[in-house]
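Researcher: We're teaching a course module on how sequence relates to structure. For the next exercise, students receive a sequence and then see the predicted structure as C-alpha cells, so they can try to spot secondary structure elements on their own. Here is the exercise chain.
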Amino acid sequence: MAGELSPEEMRRLEKRFVQTQQSIRTLRADFEQVIRMPGMRDPVVSRGEFLYRAPDDLRVTFTDPPGDYLLLRGDTFEMARAGKPPARKPSTDRSARALVAIRKVLRGEPESLEDKMDHKISRLDQEFVVSLTPVTRSPQLPEKIENRVDAETLLLRNMTITLPRGMFLEYRFSRPRRNIPLDGTLFQLRS
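Model: And here is the predicted structure for the students to work with:
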C-alpha cells in the first residue's frame, strides 16, 4: 500500500501515534548517526545504543567511536568525547536540537509546527513517512525533516534532517525494546 494520507486519515494516525508514544516508559534500541556536509568526501557514521526513559531522559552511548556519549536530562544536555571531561549545556543549545526533537517525538508531543512547517504523511509499504517542510525558508529551520515510522508498532525507525547550507543528519533506529528495565545510573550527569 502506498500513497498520501487524507486529512482525516492523518488525524487518526496522529492520535494513534501520540497514544502509542505516551505508553512508552523506556526504550532501548541500536542507533546509527550519519552526518554529511559539503566538502566531506564520505559521510561520518557513528554507531551505538539509544536509551530513553520517559519523560525527560535520553542517552546515546557510542560504540563507534567508543567512549563518546550524549545525554539529555530534563533541561540539561551533556556530551563527552572519549578521554575528555564531559561538557554540560542547556537543552536549548543548538548542539542538543536533534536529541530534543527526538525526545519530543518519543513523548508524543511534536512541536506545534502549523505556523512554521507544512506536513504530509504517506504510507510506503510497512512504514509511514512524515515529511515536514518550512512554510517560509529560514536559517533557523531545517529545509526538511523526514520521519519514517513503523506502520505496525508506530516506533520511529529513521529521522532525516536536511539543514541549510547542505548539511544532512540521519538517525537510524533498529532492534527497539520497549518498557524494559534500564539502569538509572546511565542517565546520571557526570560533569
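Model: If you want an answer key for the exercise: Residues 76 and 90 are 5 Å apart (CA to CA). The domain at 2-174 is CATH 2.50.20.10 (outer membrane lipoprotein receptor (LolB), chain A).
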